[in-house]
Design goal:
single chain; about 90 residues; alpha+beta
């Protein structure tokens, strides 16, 4: 007999049975025309966690799955871009 799914501490679905844990980390309005970016963390039993970046406009979605091992590199790239735009002299290192 399989053990029941053990939730991740961060799971946003604690009240209902499910096959995978899910947590919406942020929902960002990218433009006033209704373009949104949804950042979510997923994890099913016996597989590594997955980060998804979903663009949504007028009910249509496009999902980009990101292996969680690449998330730190993605975060560094976004951080560097922000620092370059706001002219942080340390961003060029």
């Amino acid at each position: 007999m399989r053990r029941p799914w053990l939730h991740q501490p961060w799971c946003g679905r604690q009240g209902a049975p499910h096959a995978a844990c899910l947590l919406t980390l942020d929902r960002i309005e990218l433009s006033p025309s209704g373009l949104w970016l949804i950042v979510q963390l997923h994890q099913a039993r016996d597989v590594p966690a997955l980060l998804t970046l979903t663009t949504e406009r007028a009910g249509r979605q496009q999902i980009i799955p990101v292996d969680i091992r690449h998330a730190p590199r993605l975060a560094r790239a976004v951080d560097k871009a922000v620092r370059l735009v706001f002219d942080d002299p340390f961003a060029r290192e």
